[in-house]
Fold each of these.
Amino acid sequence: MTPALATAAAPPHQAAGFWRTYVVSTDHKTIAKQYLTLGLVMALIGGYLAYVMRWQLAYPDTSVPGFGFVGPETYNTLVTMHGTIMVFFVAMPILLGTFGNFLIPLMIGARDMAFPKLNALSFWLLATGSLVLVVSFFVPGGAAAAGWTGYPPLSARAEYTGVEWGLNLWLLAHAIEFAAFLLGGVNFLTTAITMRAHGLTPGRLPLMIWQLLTASVLFLLSVGPLIAGAIMLLMDRIAGTGFFLPDRGGEPLLWQHLFWFFGHPEVYVVLLPPLGAVLEVLSVFSRKPIFGYRLIIGGTLAAGALSFIVWAHHMFVSGMDPRLAMPFSITTILISVPFALIMFAMIATLWRGSIRFETPMLWALGFVAMFITGGLTGIFNGSAPADIYIANTYFVVAHFHYTLFAAVFFGGFAGLYFWYPKMFGRMLGDRLGPLHFWLTLVFFNLTFFPMHWLGLAGMVRRIADPTQYEMLVPYQYLNVFVTVSSLGLIVAQGIFLLNFFLSLVRGRMAPANPWQAATLEWTTSSPPPHGNWGPALPEVERGAYDYSFPGAAQDWLPQRRLAVPAIAGGQE
Amino acid sequence: MEDVAFRAPASPGQSRGEARTGGEAALRGKIAIWWFLASEIMLFGGLITSFVLARLGGAAGTHEPLNVTVAAVNTFVLLTSSYTMVEAFAAAEHGNRPGMRFFLAVTVLAGLGFLGLKVYEYSGEIAHGFTPGRGGFWSFYYTMTGLHALHVLIGVVVNSALLVMAGAAIRRPYRVELAGLYWHFVDIVWIFLFPLLYLT
Amino acid sequence: MLLSWLPENVSSFGRDVDGILSLIFVVTLAWFIVTIGTFLVFVIRYRRREGQPAAHVTGERWREAAWIVLPCVLVLVLDFWIDFRGAPVWAKIKVDRPETDLVIRVTAKQFTWLVTYPGPDGRFDTDDDRTFMDEIHVPAGKPVQLSLQSQDVIHSFFLPNLRLKQDVLPGRTIFAWLDAGKPGKYELPCAQLCGFGHSGMKGWLFVHEAGDYERWVKEQWPGGRS
Ligand code: HEA
Ligand code: HEA
Ligand code: CUA
Ligand SMILES: [Cu+2]
C-alpha cells in the first residue's frame, strides 16, 4: 500500500458525499468537530438545567419561565442531570474528544489516528450514550434523581426516588460513555506512542500532548472500578443482588469508594487537557518558551499519580473508619505541591515576556486566576476537620465550579479561540471575543463567589428551597443575587454561540499560522487538507517553544524542519 | 475508497520493509491491546478487591453448594485452550494454514465447552434456590463469573472470526497474536476467580 | 472575614474547627495575594511594547528553576503545618469520643429524624423508651453521645452551630458526640441527598440549662426514677 502514497496526496475525496464526509467519516479532524457539536448541544441542555435550578433557588415554588413549576422531585432530577451532563457529556467530549482528536495527529505530525475506524466508533458510541441520557428525561418516572454521584441505597431501589427506568438508563449511558472514552484513550495513546514525526522525541512534545496523554492514562486506569461498580448497581436494581443494600448483606460505602477512586482522577482528566491548552497559549502569546518544561511534565505526572490515593477526601464524614481520614487528608493537601509548581511555572512564563492580549490569551489568563482560586478552596475541603463543617455545603459547590468551570470554559475557550482558525479556516471573531471574555469573567465571579458565603452560612447542597431553613432566610438575598448573575453568565455564552456561527461563514480567512506559533499543526494549511501534510510528513528538529531565540530572524523557530528534500516520508 | 493511502507510513520506522509481518501495525495493535488490558485489570481488580473486602468484613457468606469438580474441569479446559491458542499463533507465523485453523477451532470449542459447563453450573445452583438475589456471596459470584463468561464469549467470537477469515489471519499473523493476548488475559482472570470463589 | 459568615458556634470543639478554618484561610489568602499579585504585575509590566522583545528564558537551569521550586518547598511546609494542626482536631471530634452519661439514638428515615431516649432505665429497646420527631433535647455543658442509624438511605446529621456533621448509614450504627455550651434552639438540616423530601428534612436541637433539662425530663417521664 505504501508506494501509491505520494500521488494520493492531492485533492481529498471531495466526491465522497455528505454521508461519508460528515457522518461516518474516519478523518480525525471531522471526528473532532463532531465531538464539538455534541458537546455544544449538551452544554446548552446543561446550561438550561442550571438556569431552571437557579430560578427555583431564588424564587422557590414559582413557575420558572420556559419550564414551569419545579417540585422537589424535579429539582433532584435537575441537579443530577446538570452534573452528569456537564462533567461527562460536555467536559469530556469537548476537552478530550475535540482537542484530543484534533490535536494529537496534527501536533505529532501524523496523518490520522492509529485506528481511524475505532475512532469513529468511539464518537458514535458517545453519541448513542448521549441520546440514551436525553431519552431518559422522557421515560415514565423521569430521569435520574440520585445526584451525579448516584449514592446507593438511594440509587439502588426505585421506591426511594420514584425513578425507575431513568436511573437504569443513566447507568447505561455511563457504561456506553466509558466504553467510548476507553477506546478513545487506547487510540490516543497508541497514536502518540507509535506515530510521532521523525525527531519528535518525548522531550520535544508539546505540553498539550503530555497533558492529553496523562489524562488518557488516568482515565484508563481509574475507570475500571467504576465500571465494576456500575455493573453491581445495575445488578442490584434489576437482578435483585445486594451489593449496596444492607438488608441484603451489602455495603453502601463500597459504591462511594469505587465512585471516588474514579471520581478524583476524573476531575484531573477534565483539568489536564485545558491546562495543556493554556500552557500552549501562554507561551505563544507571551512570545516566550514555557518556563520549566520538564518540571511541568514532572508535576503533571506526580499529580496524576497522587490522584489515585486521595479519593476518600470525598468521604471524610461518610461514616468510613475515621482513622482513615487523616492519611487521606495528608495526601490530598500534598497535591497542592505539583499544582503549585505548574501554576508558578505559568506565572513565570509571563515574566519578561511580550504579552499580546488576543482573545485566546485573555481566556488563558482568566484560567490561571480562576483555577488558583478554586484550587485554594480545595485545601479547605481537603483538611478533614475543616471539611466536617464544609462537606456537602455550597462551599463545595463554589469550589468545584471554580475548578471545573475554569477548566471547561476558561481553558476550553482558550483552546477553542486558539485552534478555531486551524479547525475551520477562519478566525473566531476577534471583536466579540473579548466582550465574551469580560462578561463571562465578571458574571462567573458574581455567580459563584457568593456561593462560598452561602456555604459558610450553612446552606447545604441539593436542596430545592433554601427558605425552608430559618438560618438561611437572612441570606436569601444572596441566592437571588447569584441567580441574577447566573442569568448574565448564561446570556454571555449566547455571544459565543453567535460569534461561533457568524465566524463560520463571515470570519476573516485564517492564514496557516495566524499566531506565529511554533508547533507542527501551524505548518499545514488552515484547515489542514485530508491527510494533513501533503506528500511529505513533517520532521522535527527542535522543542515546541523556541520563541524569541536570541539572534534568530523572527521571534519564533518552528519545530518543523523546513526546506525538506522533496523525498521525505513517502519513499520506500 | 478508504483513505488507506494516507495512513500508511505514519512514522519513518515503517518504511523499513516490515510490511509483510505488519511490523508497525503489529506494534500498534500490541500497544493498544496492552492498554486495553490494563483497564480490564482495573475492572476485574475493582470487583475482586470489593469481594475480598466484603469477605474480610464477614459479609459475604458461604459458598457451600458450588460445584468444585465442574469448575476444576472448566479450569483445565480454559488452560488447555490457552495452550492451543499459542499453537495457533505459532502455526500462523509459519504460514501453516491448516494447523492454524485446527488449533483455532480447538480453542473455540474449548471456549464453548467452558460456557456450556458454566450454564450447567448456573442452572444447578439456581435450581437449588441460589439465585443472584440470595445475598452477599451470590451477588458477587454471579456478577464476577457472569462478567468473565461475557469475556469468554467475546473471545470465542473473535477467534471464530479469525477462523472464518483464515486467509487474512495468515497474511497478518499478528492478529492471531493479539487475539491470543486477550484470550490469555481471560484465562488469567479465571485463575484468580476459581480459588477465590470456589476454594476459600 | 471568613468566620463572620459562619453561624454562631456553641459547641466545645467548634472553636477548634473554626481555628483550622481560619488557619487555612490565612495561608490560602496569603498565597492568593502573592500569586495573583505577581500574576497581575507581570501581565501589566510585560505587555507588548515596541522595541522590547521577550527574553528567551526556559527555566531549565537550576538558577532559574529555583524561582518556582523553592516556593513549592514552602507550600510543602505549610501543607504539613495544616495537617499537623488539623489532626488533633479531627481526632478530638471523630476518633476519641468521651464517655457520657447520656446516649441518644437518632434514627433517620425519609424524611424525618426520630430521636429516641433510653428513659430512666438507661437502656434502649425497653418500655420506657420515648421517641420524638425532629427534636433533640440536651443539657448545656455536658457531653452527649449520639447513636446514629438510618432505616432506608443515607442521610447526614448536620448541626451548623455545633460544627458537627456525620453521615448516617443504613445497616450500621455510627457514634457522634457533642457538648453544647449555650442554651438555645439550633437548626438540624439533613446534608445528604436522600430523596424528594431531602429539601426541608430538618429537625431542631434544644439545648437547655441544667435545671430546665431536668424539668423537661420530668415532664416526659413523670413516673421515672432518675
Ligand atoms: C476540575 C475539577 C477539580 C479540580 C482541579 C479539583 C482540585 C482539588 N480538589 Fe476538588 N472537587 C471537584 C472538582 C475538582 N477539584 C468536584 C467536582 C468536587 C465535588 C464532587 C461532588 O461531591 O459532587 C470536588 C470536591 C472536593 C472535595 C470534597 C469536598 C466534600 O465533598 O466535602 C475535596 C476534599 O478534599 C476536594 C479537594 C481538592 C483539592 C485539594 C484539589 C487540588 O487539586 C487543588 C490544587 C491546587 C491548588 C492548591 C492551587 C495552586 C497552589 C498554590 C497557589 C500554592 C499555595 C497552596 C497551598 C499552600 C495549599 N475537592
Ligand atoms: C463542567 C461542569 C459544570 C459547569 C460548567 C456548571 C455550570 C453551572 N452550574 Fe453546575 N454543577 C456541576 C458541574 C458544572 N456546573 C456539578 C458536577 C454539580 C453537582 C451536581 C450534583 O450535586 O449532583 C453542579 C451543581 C450545581 C449547583 C448546585 C445545585 C445543588 O446542589 O442544589 C448549582 C447551583 O447554583 C449550579 C449552577 C451552575 C450554573 C449557574 C452554571 C452556569 O455556569 C452555566 C453556564 C453555562 C452554559 C449556559 C452553557 C452554555 C455554554 C455554551 C453553549 C458554550 C459552549 C462551550 C464551549 C464550546 C467550550 N451547579
Ligand atoms: Cu435526609 Cu437528606
Ligand atoms: Cu477529589
Note: Chain C has two domains: 14-47+56-94, 103-220.
Amino acid sequence: MKTLEELAAIREKMKSKVVLREGSSDIRVVVGMATCGIAAGARPVLNAFVEEVAKENLSEKVTVTQTGCIGICQYEPVVEIFEAGKEKVTYVKMTAEKVKRVMDEHIKGGKPVAEYTIGNN
Amino acid sequence: MIRTHVLICGGTGCTSSNSPAIRAAMEKEIAAKGLEEEVKVVQTGCFGLCALGPIMIVYPDGTFYSRVTEADVPEIVEEHLLKGRPVQRLVYNDTGDEKKVDGPVSLSETGFYKKQMRLALRNCGVIYPVVIDEYIVMDGYAALGKVLTEMTPEGSY
C-alpha cells in the first residue's frame, strides 16, 4: 500500500464486512421469525432482504433484523419496515419473490407497496 | 449471506472466564442449526467490562450479553439467532438509572460506558484485531495518511 487511494479502496471494499456492527440505520426491516413465521417461510424472506440490501449496496442505510411473534400468525411471514419520521409499514404473507418489489418501490422509491400490506389482506 | 455478527470478547479477562470454549460452542451450535451462511462469529479485543465477562454482543441489534456460559449457547442460537428473541435473563441493560429498562439497550447507554469517551480504544470490542482490513474500515491509518499527504510541519494545510 503506497497511496491514500489504495487505503480508501481497501476501506470501501471491506466496509460491507463490518457495517453490521455499526448498529441500526435509517431504515429497519424487521422479519417475524417466531415458530409461526419460520413455519410460514420467513427464513427465505429474511435472507432475500439481506441479499438484496447487500446487492443494492444499501448496507449503511438499511438494517435487516428478526423479531419474535407479532401476534398475527395467520398473516405470517410478516415484515415490518420502520423509518424515522414515518409510520411503520406492515407487510403480510411475504415471499422471497415479493421482496424485490418492496426493495425497489419502498426501500429505494419511498413508496410502500400497498397491495402487500396488512390493510389489503 | 451473513446477516448477523456475534462478537465474543477474546481479551485476557474474558479468556480467563472461558470465552474460547464459548466461541467454540457457538460455532458448533451455529453449524448444527445450519446458520453458518447467515451468522458470523467474531473474536474481539477487550470490551473493558471484564467483571461481567464473558461478554458477547450480537449485531445488528446490538444486544449485550454478560456472564455467558457454554450451557447458554444453544438457547442463544435457537432463540435469538434463529427466532429473533434475545435471551432476556442474560441481557446486560443496567443504565445506572433508578428506572430499570425492560429489554436490551445499546452499549453506549449502559451505566458503565455512557460516561466514557473512548479514543485510542474505541475499536476494542468492535473489530477482530488480527485482521488489518477491519481496522482500515474503521478509519485506521486515515490520520497518518492525512498527516503525510495533506499537512505541513507547521500544522496547516
Note: The first strand of chain A starts at residue 27 and ends at 32.
